[in-house]
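Bump. Still looking for Cardiolipin synthase C-alpha cells.
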Amino acid sequence: MTINWFTLTYAVYWGVVLYVTVQIIHQYTISSRASAWLFTIYVFPVVGVGLYFIFGVKRRKRKIYQQKLSSDQKSLEHYLSLFPDETKGGNMELPEALHPFSGLTEMIVRDGCSRLTAYNQVTLLENGEEKFPRLLKDIQAATQSIHLEYYIFRFDQVGNELLQALICKVKEGVTVRFIYDDYGSLGLNQSVLKRMRAHGIEAWPFSELSLFAFTDRLNYRNHRKIVVIDGQIAYIGGINVGNEYHNELTEGASDNQPFWRDSHLRIKGQAVAYLQSIFINDWNFCTSQQVAIDDTLGVDGQLPESGDQKLIQVLSSGPDSPQPTILFAMLQAIHAARDEILITTPYFLPNPAMTKALKIAVLSGVTVKVLVPHNSDNWVVNAAAQSYYYELLEVGVEFYKYTNGFIHAKTMVIDGYLSVMGTANFDERSFELNFEVNVMIYDHSFAEQLRDSFARDCTRAKQLNVNAWESRSAVKIFVEKLARLISPIL
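Sorry for the wait, here they are.
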C-alpha cells in the first residue's frame, strides 16, 4: 500500500488547525484577541500556527505562576502586618482633591496591591542624562543593599559604568542583587554575567530562556525597571540601562540613533517598601531563595520617610496577578476624570474597553490629549496604532506625534492631581502579558510638573487633524486596518 505523504501531512495540519481553533475559542474570553488569533492562523498557514504556540497559549494560570501568586500574597500580608495602614487609622488627614479618586484607591487595595502611602518625596528625572548621574550618586552612597531589576541591560558605556560602581560597593560589603529579563537583555552575554558573579554580584534571569521552556517564557517578559537602595530610595520608570537612553552619549554618534525622550522617578518614602517587596518576591521566584522582606526594609528595619507629604500607591501586574491590575487602575482613573487627561506612550494599542473609556471621557466634556511617537521602532505596531487614531479624533481626542526623536515615556496626568508613571505601555502586552509596575501619585505640585513636561513635548510634536487624517491614501488606511486585526496579540 502506497502512502500519500502529501495527503497525510495535509490532514495532520488541518487537524492541528482545528485543535488550535478550539483552544482559542475555549481560552480567550476577550473576543478581539480570539478573532486576532483566528485571523492569524487561517490567513498565514503554518506560520500563524507556529506563532500561536509561541505567543498565543495563555499561561497566566499555569502552576508556576500560581505558586508565585500564592507566595506574593503571603509576603504582602506579612508586610502589611508590619506596617498598618496609616490612612485608615485616622492619623493623616486626606486632601479633598483625593476624594474623586477614592474608588480608585480602594480598588487598588482590594486587588491586593499597595495601600495609600504617605511621606513620599518624588523627583522627576527626564532622560538618561538626569537619571544615570543621580542613580550612580545614590549607589555610591549605599551602605547595606542595592537591588536592581531591568528589562534591558546593555554592557556598553552606561552599563559598564554602572557595573563598576556596583563592584566597588560589593567590595565595601554591600549586598547587590540583580534581576534581568533573558529576552530583553540578550546582549548581556555569559562572560559579562560571569564577571558580575565573580565580583560578588548576585545576578539572575527572571525566567531563563531555554529550548524546552522557550514558548513558556518568551511571551511573558519581565518589563519592570526597579532599583531599590538600602530600602530607602527607589527608582522606577521607562529608562533601561543602555547608551541609547543617554542622549549626551549618542548625540552625533549615528544618524540612525534618534533623540531618546523618556521619564523616570526617584522616590524616597513609604512607597519604597512596596517596590522593595515586589523586587524581593521576584527575586525569590527566579532564584528559589527565601529572602525575608523584614531583612530588606532599610536602616534598622524602619519604614522610610521623607519630609514631603506626597501620597503614592504602587501597583504591579503580570501573569502572576489574579487580575490585570494596571489595566483596571488605568480604566478607573480615566472614568474618574472630570477636566483633563494627558497621556504619553510609545505604543498606543488600546483594547476595546480603553477605547470606549476615552470616548466616554471626551463626550463627557473631558479634554483628552495623547502624545505618541511620529514613528515607532516597530512598523507593524506603528501601523496598528495609527488605525485607532481616526475614530478617537472623530469624537474629539487630540493626538500629537512627537517629531524630535523617539518618545518612550509612559505617563498619564488626570485633572492636575493624579499622575501615573511606570513601565506599562498603553497596549495589550503591558496590560495582559508582561510583568509591569506603575505608581499612582496623588499630588498637585508633581502633576503640574508632568503637565509642564507634556506641554514642552507637544511643542516638539505635530497635532493631527481629523480631516487630513481621514483623507490619507486608501492603501495606507487598508494596511493600518490589516495591522489592527492582529493588534490584540502584538
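The mean pLDDT is 85.

Edit: fixed formatting.
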